[in-house]
Amino acid sequence: MDILKGIGKALGFVIDAFVVIVYHVFLFGIGAVGVFLAPSGIGFVVIAVAVGLAILYWTTGWMIFLG
Predict the structure, then answer these.
(1) CA angle at residue 52 from 34 to 10, to 5 degrees?
(2) What is the pLDDT of residue 62?
(3) Is 22 in contact with 57 (CB distance < 8 Å)?
(4) Long-range interactions of 24-32: CB distance < 8 A, separation 24+
(5) How far apart are alpha carbons 5 and 28 in whole angstroms?
(6) Between helices 2-29 and 42-56, what is the axis angle to 10°?
(7) What is the C-alpha end-to-end distance of the chain, expressed in Å?
């Protein structure tokens, strides 16, 4: 059981790190080009994806990481 918990914590750390990086890339994307893309609707898609990633980060990532 301890081995599975260790694997879960390691996997959680990797997933957490990946989601944090991707989430911040989307945040920079919103800041840099979201304003210009908003009239075409693409900016709103970027915002929706970033919010979805934030929800994933604060629920799944931490639950897996804390095991």
Answers:
(1) 120
(2) 61
(3) no
(4) 26/50, 26/53
(5) 34
(6) 160
(7) 12
Q: Tell me: the pLDDT tens digits for 2-42?
A: 787 888 788 878 877 887 787 777 777 766 666 666 666 66
Question: In the 8-state DSSP scheme, what is residue 39?
Answer: G
pLDDT of residue 40: 67
In terms of Cβ atoms closer than 10 Å to its own Cβ (0-12, 13-18, 19+), residue 57 is middle
Instruction: Write down the domain spans for the chain.
Output: 2-66
Is residue 67 very low, low, confident or very high in pLDDT (cuts 50, 70, 90)?
A: low
